[in-house]
Amino acid sequence: MIVSRRTLGALALAAFAANLGAATANAEDKVIRIGYQKYGNAILLKAKGTLEPKLAAIGYKVTWAEFPFGPPLLEAINAGAIDFGHTGEAPPIFAQAAGSAIVYVAHEPPAPEGEAILVPKNSPIKSVAELKGKKIAYAKGSNSNYFAVKALEKAGIKYGEYEPVHLAPADARAAFETGRVDAWAVWDPFYASAQAGADARVLTDGKGVVSNHQFYLASKSYVGPNTKAIDVVLTELKAVDDWVKADPKAAAAQLSGPIGIPAPILETALKRQSYGIKPIDDAVIAEQQSIADQFFALGLLPKAITVKEIAWRAGT
After folding, report:
1. 100/129 same-domain check
2. Which residues share a beta bridge with 187?
3. How far apart are CA 312 and CA 316, in angstroms?
4. What distance in Å separates the CA atoms of residue 192 and residue 200, rounded to the nearest whole number?
5. Do 11 and 107 have their domain in common?
6. What are phi and psi of 117, to 5 degrees?
7. By the 8 A CB rule, do 9 and 75 touch?
8. H-helix or E-strand containing 64?
9. Domain end: 183, 205, 227, which one?
């Protein structure tokens, strides 16, 4: 089943409304509502449990909401359901083009080995160039959307010379395992999980194709009045970065239960992740602008955008 981005966003917001409503602080309380996914350092921070006491020291509470992938998370920020979250490179570009009131806050270094195009182990397809005319699953507007476009372009296949099948990761895995698609472009930990349990074979990862940055984003109306809270979150994200980078095996063992991912799969994903949170700078803005320009040239954006217009540079 192909699910539209709009439908996914509506379903995600509806699903989280009850939990978010129950967790929303009273008017006199200060709160930061964080959206996270099954990848990246925000879920590690949640599992670690170090953020809550640091925020309490400055008079803030935190609530958490899980999202299936980036576009619904950014729709939730735009709708006022959460204040802060993280995605890959592509979702903020689609969100900005749609008029979402978001700003870039920080980013992680490139992690190109953290996403891949997969085929079944017994597939006759041996190279990306053989995907011409084939069905390729990926989440529309996600990092894997851009990765698939670039990897196929590098192999000489133009956009329109293959059939994109827009599926969220769980649905894409089902389609992949039942042979309803020929290939699947996806990120960790779904990538690592497919390697471990879905008889998946890697055609290519992102190395030499895409940077695969992770971005932290926030509501434009939230950042100014709540700079202290955002600074604390970023500081704690850096501390988790340092801990996981130093000993991914131990981190995987400790976080496996809270995150709900088997330790060996989580360890594989953590070793392919990047660490070292950084402020938004001209170089990463230029990379994002290049992605946005390509999406617009392909007719995938409704209008051209200027990425630097939504870059928050406090503290840089």
Report:
1. no
2. 115
3. 9
4. 9
5. yes
6. -100, 125
7. yes
8. strand 60-66
9. 205
Query: For residue 260, what are the CA distances in angstroms to 57, 254, 265?
Result: 29, 11, 11
Q: How far is CA 70 from CA 86, 122, 155, 232, in A?
A: 7, 31, 27, 23
173 Cβ neighbours under 8 A, 6+ residues apart: 184, 190, 193, 194, 198
**Total domains present in the chain:** 2
pLDDT tens figures, 129-174 = 999 999 999 999 999 999 999 999 999 999 999 999 999 999 999 9
Whether residue 54 is contained in a domain is answered as: yes
Q: Identify the helix (H) or strand (E) that includes residue 206.
A: none
226 and 180 in a common domain: no
316 belongs to a structural domain: no
Q: Which of 143, 182, 141, 162 minimizes the C-alpha distance to 4?
A: 141
Side chain identity, residue 251: A
Compute the distance between CA of residue 46 and CA of residue 286 in angstroms, rounded to an integer. 31
CA distance 218 to 220: 6
Q: Global pTM?
A: 0.86
Q: How many CB atoms lie within 10 A of CB 114?
A: 26
pLDDT digits (tens, 9 = 90+) for 11-30: 445 444 434 443 444 445 79
Query: Same domain, yes or no, for 94 and 218?
Result: yes
Tokens at 95, concatenated: 């969100």
Measured between alpha carbons, how far is 89 from 40 in angstroms, rounded to an integer?
Answer: 13
